[in-house]
TrEMBL record:
This is N-acetyltransferase domain-containing protein. PANTHER family: BSR4717 PROTEIN, PROTEIN NATD1. Pfam families: Acetyltransf_CG. It comes from metagenome. PROSITE patterns: GNAT_YJDJ (PS51729). Residues 15-99 form the N-acetyltransferase domain.
């Protein structure tokens, strides 16, 4: 869920799109942003994040879901080349074990 400017809760659906090498966030069925990555056997490198809808927490929801997915996989290290992902990690030390 993301919170809209007026406080209403808006469902953000995040999925991994491995064919496009990116995690995608959707609001009301529309693409609202993505976090692009490259993947190897041991690491996932976040290269770029693009958010099309600002002010609703889409970017944070997107990165949080992506990092939780990496944690579920269990064996990957995160390399945050993307400044947005790097800033998120700096603000959320609970993900420090992934880097």
């Amino acid at each position: 869920m993301a919170e809209g400017r007026s406080g209403e809760q808006i469902p953000v659906e995040v999925t991994d799109n491995p064919a496009q090498h990116r995690f995608e966030a959707h609001l009301d069925g529309e693409l609202a942003g993505f976090a692009a990555y490259t993947l190897s056997d041991t690491k996932i490198v976040f290269t770029h994040t693009e958010v099309y809808v600002e002010g609703y927490g889409v970017g944070s929801a997107l990165v949080r879901w992506a990092l939780d997915d990496v944690r579920r996989r269990g064996s990957l290290r995160v390399v945050p080349l993307c400044p947005f992902v790097r800033a998120y990690l700096d603000k959320h030390p609970e993900y420090a074990d992934l880097t």
